[in-house]
Amino acid sequence: MISLINGTLASKDIDRVAVMTAGGVGYEIEIPLGVFESLPRQGESVSLHTSLVVKEDSWKLFGFSSVMEKSLFEKLLTAKGVGPSLAIGMMSALSAPRLMKAIREKDIATLQSVPRVGRKKAEQLILDIGDKLDAIGGGGGEGALASSGNVVADDALRALTSLGYTLSEAERGVRAALDGGNWGSSAAELIRTALSKMGGR
């Protein structure tokens, strides 16, 4: 499974990018609006967390700026009547933290603000995944640590999970570090503070 792609941003459009890896392989990756807004300039290095969706007639890669966004996308796909196109549409209309908050709090009005999501679809979404988002984290508001713009926090999350912590544990540690006033820290500083909050391992 292709879960992370690092390479050079060969081209970008509002809904997709092309990334050329060091091995000379180019990948077309579909993205939500928030990812497009956070992309570097063409020709610069880019790293995207990816989810591969396989159908009978197509294989498509979808890219995200954080593990949390990718996890949310995959969770949305488990809801009845939600395919990749609608999931990306929801994540383009609402930031990941705001979308998760709306689902958790049964905020029908906010969910209905998304194109192609009516009341029945919103209610079905809440029924299917409303109680399954805790493992993802985030959803605490627009300032949640895993929002697409917080690259340092996401780097810290990846490092902590590579050390053996679960995503939920890593997010709690990083969130505690950020709550302690470390928003301007480097990834290394954030990791050290998070580890101290978590008691190390």
Order of helices and strands: EEEHEEHHHHHHHH
Number of strands: 5
Q: What fraction of residues sit in β-strands?
A: 15-25%
CATH topology grouping of the largest domain: DNA polymerase, domain 1
Helices and strands: which structural class? alpha+beta
Identify the CATH homologous superfamily of the largest domain. 5' to 3' exonuclease, C-terminal subdomain
Strand order of the largest sheet: 1-2-3-5-4
Q: What oligomeric state do these chains adopt?
A: single chain
How many individual domains?
A: 3
Q: Ranges with pLDDT <50 over ≥5 residues? A: 139-144
Overall CATH class of the largest domain = Mainly Alpha
Percent of residues in helices: 40-55%
Spell out the key features of this protein.
five-stranded mixed β-barrel, OB fold (Dihydrolipoamide Acetyltransferase, E2P), Helicase, Ruva Protein, domain 3, DNA polymerase, domain 1
Description:
- The protein has 201 residues and is of the alpha+beta class.
- It has three domains: 61 residues, OB fold (Dihydrolipoamide Acetyltransferase, E2P) (Beta Barrel), CATH 2.40.50; 63 residues, DNA polymerase, domain 1 (Orthogonal Bundle); 48 residues, Helicase, Ruva Protein, domain 3 (Orthogonal Bundle), CATH 1.10.8.
- The chain has nine helices and five strands; from the N terminus they run βββαββαααααααα.
- It has a five-stranded mixed β-barrel with strand order 1-2-3-5-4.
- The longest helix is centred in the last third of the chain and has 13 residues.
- It is globular.
- About 3% of the residues have low confidence.
